[in-house]
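DM between two lab members

TW: hey, do you still have the Meiosis inhibitor protein 1 entry open?
JB: yeah, one sec
JB: this one, 302 aa:
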Amino acid sequence: LLFPVSNLCGKCRPRDADLLQPSLNFLYWSLHQTTPCSQQRAVAVLLSNVSLLELLQKVLECTWLRSPPSEPAYLSSEDALLCSGWLLAASLLLYQHRYNTEVHQTLSLDLAEVLNAVIFRKKKPILLLVSIIQFLRAVLRQNFSSPLLVIVGQNTAQGATQPQPSSLQDAALHPLAMRQVFSLVVSLQNLLVHKDLLLSQAVVACLETLVEYLYMKNQDVALHVASQPWHRFLLFTLLNGGQKSFLQPEVLRLMTLFLKYQSSNIISQKEISQILQEAAEANLAELPEATSRALHLFLCQV
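TW: and the structure you got?
JB:
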């Protein structure tokens, strides 16, 4: 089925949302819900379809060409298509890297536009934000060096509140600029305050990957970003004051991140002791899977 569905997608136009959206969803789930052997073949089939990738390029570009909806919570058919497009693109990046699959057609994207889609949200639905963040995380994990992706455009993110960084820092973080990093971090922090579970999972994962990327490029910059005092205020905002409030997956993962990069001004021995006490008093068998995984990583980091 991958052949006729992917060929059908390649013959569509970006505005054929009613047909494209379920078709792209089928391609996405074909990649994820299959055996590793079949997964490798599926990736090869999709990446060899030039017309599909050209269509996917046009779909992604519609993200910043269309006007924002009047109601951010409403997911229109166009928004649903964009979600499917970004998730499929992120998956293709991931699996192309995993299997080192040959690429017949690249995707070209302006990094500033992708970042601005997150930084300047303009009433985007939560699911669309999650999809773009997933794609951004996939790009960061591959250090912007995927043979499937060509980064175009200059570092022209607007609206940054940080002072102009030195060219040396920008060169170390290339293709990111220091002002883009700070704008992205602040925007991700603001998204966490929404306390939406799906959004929180995507944002925390992106923060983890971003700091890892920064640490690989410039350790001083990574430690500076991880130790921003605003992080501590964010933690207090996320803690709802209820019982076992520290045992929220996103809180545990943030604590683990700050521990990993030795941000002692963000997480103190007191918070560590509170988490250990709550974990000791909890019925571990009844904890949600996401909480159990996050707690395991936190304890390993401690």
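TW: got it. The first strand starts at residue 107 and ends at 110. The beta strands are 107-110, 149-152.
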